[in-house]
Structure formats: structure tokens, C-alpha cells
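Page 42, continued from yesterday. The earlier attempt failed because a stray header line got pasted into the input along with the sequence. Redoing it now with the clean sequence only.
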Amino acid sequence: MAAGLKASGLLLLCVFALVACDDGSVSDQQDEGVAQPAVVDQPGKQIYQKWCISCHLNGVSSAPRLARPEDWTERLQRGRSGLIQSTIQGLGAMPPRGLCRSCSDEELAQAVDYMLGTLPEKPPG
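This time it went through. C-alpha cells are written below.
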């Protein structure tokens, strides 16, 4: 039993290490079968592509995926400001500030706005 827990902890540590070492090169990946959002030149896009995409592209640890309203249904109940607070403070598997310790609150808000901009319905402020 203890060996299983130790192995699980090591696996989790390796996953976080790989995600933290992401250089943003996955930003060119396309999720097959999913229409890509038509958001152009939004300030948060670069933050998303560098720091957020490693989890939010494929829903790692239940991270809500870009342009997938079904992933955001419960989260949208918190509204934009609640989502920004969750991003800054961390929530569930997402560490505080996502993976971007150098991002300002404003930059994190822009990344949240970029992700929300890919959804058909926008949350209340």
C-alpha cells in the first residue's frame, strides 16, 4: 500500500515538473474535431499560449478546455471576477497564478478573458 502511494506521489511530481517546464511549444497543437475559437489579437492570448495551454488544451486534471462550454457550466456561476480570483489564488489542481508566477493580476485577468471569449455565452461580471 505504501509503495503504491509513493509511486503515485512520484508520478504526480513528474507530471507537475513536466508541465512547469513547458516552453509554450504546444501552442501550435490543434484539438482534432473541435472548432478553434475565432478570437484574434486579444491581450490574454499570449499568456494563455505560454502558461495555460499545457492544462487547458486537453483538460488536464479537469481544467476547463478552451471553447468547450460544457467544461465551463459550473465555473461560470462564479462570474468573471470569481474566475479571476480562482486563477490568482489557485483552485483544485491549479496552483496559485496557474503556472505563471511572474504574471500580474491584470495579465491573469486577460488570460481568463481570452478563455471566456471563446465561449458562446459570457458570464456576468
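Notes: The chain is about 45% helix and 0% strand.
Reminder to self: strip header lines before submitting.
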